[in-house]
Amino acid sequence: MGTLYLVRHGQASFGAADYDQLSARGRQQSERLGAYWRERGLRFDAVLCGTLRRHAQTLAGIAQGLGAMPEPQLLPGLNEYNSQALISAIHPAPLPRPDTPELYRQHFRLLCDALAQWMAGTISPAGMPGWDGFSGGVRAALEQVRRQHVGGSVLLVSSGGPIAAAVGEVLRTPPEVTIALNMRIRNSAVTEFSVSPKRLMLQTFNSLAHLDAPEYAGWVTHA
């Protein structure tokens, strides 16, 4: 039986003009995860990665901490949904930067509402596929792992939305649970699936074992 390690990217640049860029903390999180795995002798047989900049930067940080890894296979189906397009589909008026606690909470309230409507098929955000198309890209990646990598260790670097969709697919959760899982996934967190020829099974969710030491207490982030 193999193991699939799904990693959410390190902290990006929430509230900035370009979110798709790791912060200094995000780079530290990624490098620390790689070093943690190196300390435990983990090596990967295959690497799958989304095509966003924050995915590539996270993978580079992991590689810096871990050492040599296989050449990654880049899969657009592992890319995140467009949160701004989702929010605009239900709230067309411009919103201020979410730079206060209340505006931050408002942003995620609107996002959760928009996700629920998108998953139900009641909105079609500009430039985005429907939920079936989005989740289908995630299912294709999981099926690829199940068919090609039984018995191996596979690293998958992506974002909170695809990882929550993957967990929802394996556990067959209703939409509201999938959204709740999405909102809980922390930066650089690891979710593990056991891989058998017949199915994938959830082993751990949203783990930050690599930051479980007093010196890393301030490194836990969500956005």
From TrEMBL:
Its EC number is 3.1.3.-. GO terms for molecular function: hydrolase activity. It holds the Pfam family His_Phos_1. CDD domains: HP_PGM_like. It is an enzyme of class 3 (hydrolase). SMART domains: PGAM. Keywords: Hydrolase. Transmembrane segments: none annotated. InterPro entries: His_Pase_superF_clade-1, His_PPase_superfam, Mito_Ser/Thr_phosphatase. This is Histidine phosphatase family protein. It comes from Diaphorobacter limosus. The lineage of its organism: Bacteria, Pseudomonadati, Pseudomonadota, Betaproteobacteria, Burkholderiales.
